[in-house]
Write a structure and sequence with these properties.
The complex is a heterodimer of chains A (257) and B (349).
Chain A lengths: L1 H8 L11 H16 L8 H5 L1 H9 L4 H10 L2 H13 L3 E6 L2 E6 H26 L2 H10 L4 H31 L6 H32 L16 H24 L1
Antiparallel strand pairs in A: 1-2
Chain B lengths: L9 H22 L8 H16 L2 E2 L7 E2 L4 H8 L1 H17 L9 H24 L5 H30 L6 H33 L1 H9 L6 H29 L22 H13 L6 E2 L11 H36 L9
Antiparallel strand pairs in B: 1-2
């Protein structure tokens, strides 16, 4: 499963993996802000913005093919909106690229711009998820002031997602083994409701067992972590390179494009 | 309904992130009394349950080959109460963004508001009003269908409003709004039917869960429910009417005019002083535009060939230079990796 793959990738070792999660989270946020604020007409400058996430993924040794495949899975909604530009913006423009020059529509350029921005910001986000363990991300959120209750909630949620997804697969396989023909809508809903209901009851029972076991071991509502990571020189360097890169591209964009 | 970064402008993204953070902070503050440390595991696992519940798909009528699944926000809000439900679903939305990349990081604020905070409170409020004492099957079904309809359609309306306020839509606002609302009307009814069926199943098999849920709502009384519905209606209505009044003149094509159509009514623009200043700066200092807009009708030769050629070479330089840089980074990393050995070993700590 692709999400398990991302989880595995985050446990690798590389200079990017070693960076502080807070710095990476804020850097991705800032980078996304600058990519999104590019005008819809600037298509070619997007290639320059793609260098940063590419460099991060290559340095972290994350397979690019996996990342692109992952982005493809989450793209349908954006793809529909990008393609709708082709229908609604039919203004004729001339696009020039090196020695080539052709007439096209504004919609096509907007479509390219939306897809390009989507791929770049998503690659940056996958770069963050694939190089940061979720527990580190949670610690970063706690340090950035996210309420304790919510951080604990995210921790538990992440811990049990994969377990319940597996349970979901088991139940669905059992249904597939028993349901030999297409049912009417009423029966479909009734069966699905019973399945969802039984997963719900199973989840509540699981929660009670987990809660009792954790309290038996002295859980007081806090996650305790070994060692407190501080922002180090490498983190400052990473942030500084990103800042320089963005300033450089902004200058390039303002002056030449 | 997950919004991507590209559907928002930076001010809207930052504003909604702030609003979502404030909303979540408030909900967490209110929930402190309801969610004690022994319920932490329950809350987390309920969030995880949403992922499993979303896998259970079922055939849809009249649409062969298509299947639907439930989203679960309203179900959790009904059973756990709106505060706990909102926290559980917000966590789900954040995990979907950070781990599964479903929805952008900048759009997280919008997604939390549209898919977690709004459906939980609105859905819960509407359900309590319509389901009443939950004595009959019909009451439960009516309550859950109306609740899901209202909650999902409100979320869909907000998606449209947020994109339109951002000024990124090239699709006319009303077309986008009607498409979103139309699709979510269908999804809402299906969600409502399955939510009602799950509630009935639970009432039959484990009535204690439903009873505990009703008692666990954090004093969300009927007047509060009515107030929530009224407030949501006013906010959404005001948003749409504001957009409706500002659409014809306030929004225009962000980058071009239509010389071929002098009466062309524009759709998207950003008239804020900051944007005007930046555009002014860009127009003064930019050597050449990225691409040149035709001045004549289709089929005529463009007038400024030299400018076009210059812009073309800059675009070419940007793309080929970036490709070359990426190639160098790739080769450098390969060389370094060969020298240092494979880096795929798990971390020691």
């Amino acid at each position: 499963m692709h999400h398990a793959q991302i989880d595995r990738l985050s446990y690798r070792a590389s200079p990017v993996h070693a960076l502080d999660a807070r710095v990476k989270l804020i850097c991705v946020l800032v980078f996304s802000v600058f990519v999104i604020s590019l005008p819809a007409t600037s298509v070619s400058i997007l290639a320059c913005y793609a260098i940063w996430p590419f460099a991060v993924l290559v340095t972290a040794n994350i397979p690019i093919k996996f990342v692109l495949k992952h982005i493809l899975i989450v793209s349908p909604f954006v793809a529909v909106l990008a393609v709708s530009n082709l229908l609604y913006d039919k203004e004729v423009v001339v696009a020039v690229f090196g020695p080539w020059r052709w007439e096209t529509t504004g919609g096509l350029l907007r479509c390219f711009s939306i897809c390009g921005k989507f791929i770049i910001t998503m690659t940056a986000l996958v770069g963050l998820a694939a190089t940061t363990r979720f527990s580190d991300l949670l610690a970063a959120m706690a340090k950035l002031g996210v309420p304790h209750l919510f951080v604990v909630q995210l921790g538990f949620l992440y811990r049990y997602i994969f377990m319940l997804i597996d349970r979901g697969y088991h139940v669905l396989r059992a249904r597939a083994g028993r349901k030999l023909r297409r049912l009417g809508f009423g029966d479909e809903v009734k069966t699905s409701a019973a399945i969802v209901g039984s997963i719900f009851i199973g989840s509540i029972d699981l929660a009670q067992r987990v809660s009792m076991a954790m309290q038996g071991r002295g859980f007081d509502g806090r996650f305790h972590r070994l060692g407190k990571k501080r922002i180090a020189g490498a983190d400052y360097l990473f942030a500084a390179i990103l800042a320089l890169y963005i300033v450089g591209l902004q200058f390039l964009g303002r002056v030449f494009y | 309904m997950h919004m991507a970064n590209e559907l928002l402008s930076v001010p809207v993204a930052v504003g909604t992130l702030g609003a979502a953070a404030a909303g979540l902070g408030f909900v967490c503050h209110k929930a402190k009394n309801i969610i004690t440390s022994d319920k932490f595991a329950l809350m987390g696992i309920m969030g995880a349950f949403v992922f499993a519940a979303q896998m259970v798909n079922f055939q849809l009528p009249l649409m062969p080959g298509t299947s639907g699944h439930m989203v679960g926000a309203v179900l959790l809000a009904i059973i756990l109460g709106p505060y706990a439900g909102a926290i559980a679903i917000s966590a789900v939305v954040i995990i979907q963004c950070l781990i599964f990349q479903d929805g952008g990081l900048l759009a997280l604020g919008c997604n939390i508001i549209n898919m977690a905070l709004l459906p939980s409170f609105l859905g819960y409020g509407v359900y309590r009003v319509f389901a009443g004492a939950e004595l009959f099957r019909g009451q439960i079904y009516t309550g859950s269908i109306v609740a899901c309809l209202v909650a999902l359609v409100a979320g869909a309306v907000l998606v449209s409003v947020e994109s339109a306020v951002s000024g990124v839509l090239s699709v006319p606002f009303y077309t986008f709004l009607f498409t979103m609302v139309g699709v979510h009307l269908i999804i809402g009814v299906i969600e409502g039917v399955i939510t009602g069926a799950v509630l009935l199943y639970l009432r039959q098999v484990r009535p204690d869960i439903i009873a505990a849920g009703t008692a666990n709502t954090g004093r969300f009384s009927k007047p509060v429910a009515y107030m929530t519905i009224i407030a949501a209606t006013v906010v959404i209505g005001a948003g749409i009417s504001h957009l409706a009044s500002s659409l014809p003149d306030g929004l225009e094509w962000s980058y071009a005019e239509r010389p071929d159509e002098p009466d062309f009514e524009s759709i998207v623009s950003n008239q804020s002083p900051a944007v005007t200043a930046v555009e002014d700066f860009q127009s003064r200092y930019s050597v050449l535009p990225d691409y040149t807009i035709r001045s004549g009708a289709f089929g005529q030769k463009a007038t400024d060939g030299a400018a076009e050629a210059g812009a073309g070479w800059q675009s070419f330089a940007a793309v080929s230079g970036s490709a070359a840089t990426m190639g160098l980074i790739w080769l450098g990393a390969l060389a370094l990796r060969k020298r240092n050995g494979v880096q795929n070993a798990p971390r020691a700590d």
